Please model this.
Amino acid sequence: MKIAEIKSLTTDELKGRIAAEKANLDQLKFNHALSPLDNPMSIKATRRDIARMMTELDARKNDAKADL
Model:
């Protein structure tokens, strides 16, 4: 997921996507433990997408605090 796509999401959509991606990451890890994935780098990519979304969410929270 690109940064521009992440910034275009609303805060509620962003929280929902984070929850969905975390569930997806858990499923990928579980599947990889049972049998090797075709592309094990997808675990790394998913983790990084979650980090990007969390960073944007934190930035929005900090901006809201600065406005007060």
